[in-house]
Design a protein that fits this description.
GO terms for molecular function: leucyl-tRNA--protein transferase activity. This protein is of the alpha+beta class and 360 residues long. It folds into two domains: 78 residues, no CATH class; 242 residues, 3-Layer(aba) Sandwich (Aminopeptidase), CATH 3.40.630.70. Helices cover 35% and strands 17% of the residues. It has 13 helices and 14 strands. The strands form four sheets. It has an eight-stranded mixed sheet, sandwiched between helices. Helix 1 crosses helix 6, helix 1 crosses helix 7 and helix 9 crosses helix 13. The longest helix has 15 residues. The protein is globular. The mean pLDDT is 93.
């Protein structure tokens, strides 16, 4: 098995400059205030106000749907020059996706997105509010439809050191490698540095926020007593592996960042470095979330593959907002689910084991 970068974003013919994600995470961990206020010129603010509803405080999120509807068409974005964990937490609790929008150059503004249609699938059907299914696949996540390659399903074998893969969720040591892989693949995009800082802060301080940040990683299994040292070396390779490099023990091959509000899991972004491991990322994420009690998987904007292999159906905006209000009403749910994730996956679960449980 060999790593690939063929699908990574390029600058001309070259890979994008490497980002020192370990340093980013250390800076966030040592900071008392991770908020970022983006400086905008008066004419830029005027331009934005003509097109997007402003969001300067939590209360503005409560009227975002109404203000977007007042613009006509299918507008979905608000805007704020402020990136703030409290504002992001409040947005997630209201079914509003935390996004960043380029403001020119290397500047980004916070652009909370309220999708005109939201793409959802049930992890524990039936979920009230979902339409009656026309067939057995519609509206339900079924891991078998993803057809994960058999090369990822081998079991562990200490004698032969057979190639095997493990799923880890919400380990603190995984946040930097996961983000490093994501930025290497996608570049500086809507998950910009200011937004990453808020996500990392919320991840490192889960107890302060109702929204629980989730970090999913898939690694090649490490054998032997020196497995932690191998994993550390593997993380150093995340930033600089080359096309065609062998996948060594401990290597990260897929990662996802998302969040839990109530018992709804929302995928935010992800990346992979091995052929077929993008599909694997989706499969393990869905199965892991189902195993700890998430009832709904929110996949954001509608795309063909989401309905074809993830069983997604689309919810219009107001129906989505009603669903969120119902599912976040129990303020203890997300905390319990995140706790189960750490308890079950912090030491790693073999992909084969996770999927075998799904078959029972």
């Amino acid at each position: 098995m060999r790593h690939t970068r063929k699908h990574f974003k390029k600058r001309g013919r070259d890979d994008l400059p490497m980002v020192d994600m370990e340093r980013e995470v250390r800076d966030v961990a040592s900071s008392n205030d991770v908020r970022t206020l983006v400086q905008l010129f008066p004419e830029e603010i005027e331009f934005l106000l003509m097109r997007l509803p402003p969001v300067t405080k939590v209360e503005d999120l409560d009227t975002l749907s109404e203000r977007l509807s007042g613009l006509g068409g299918k507008e979905e974005l608000g805007f704020s020059p402020l990136f703030c964990p409290l504002l992001i937490d409040a947005a997630c609790q209201r079914g509003i996706f935390p996004l960043a929008l380029s403001a020119g150059g290397d500047r980004y503004i916070f652009a909370p997105k309220l999708h005109y249609h939201r793409c959802l699938t049930q992890l524990e059907p039936p979920v009230e509010g979902f339409p009656m299914a026309n067939d057995a696949k519609e509206g339900k996540f079924q891991v078998g439809l993803l057809q994960v390659s058999k090369k990822y399903l081998s079991g562990r074998n200490e004698m032969t050191r057979a190639r095997s893969f493990d799923v880890f969720i919400n380990r603190k040591e995984d946040i930097a490698p996961a983000l490093s892989l994501i930025v290497s693949q996608h570049g500086e995009n809507w998950m910009c540095r200011a937004l990453r800082a808020c996500f990392v802060h919320m991840f490192l301080n889960q107890e302060r926020y109702r929204t629980k940040i989730v970090v999913v990683t898939v690694r090649r299994h490490c054998y032997g007593a020196d497995s932690r040292e191998k994993a550390k070396t593997a993380d150093e390779r995340v930033r600089d592996f080359a096309e065609g490099d062998h996948v060594e023990e401990g290597d990260l091959v897929a990662a996802e960042i998302g969040f839990i509000a109530g018992d709804i899991y929302t995928s935010a972004t992800g990346a992979y470095s091995l052929s077929g491991s993008g599909t694997l990322q989706l499969a393990v994420t869905g199965e892991a979330m189902r195993s700890v009690g998430c009832k709904v998987w929110d996949l954001g904007m509608a795309m063909a593959y989401k309905s074809q292999v993830l069983g997604c159906v689309t919810f219009p905006r107001e129906k989505w907002l009603r669903l969120v209000r119902e599912h976040v009403a129990d303020t203890s749910l997300a905390e319990k689910i995140e706790g189960r994730l750490r308890e079950k996956f912090s030491e790693g679960v073999a992909v084969r084991t996770l999927f075998s449980l799904a078959d029972k």
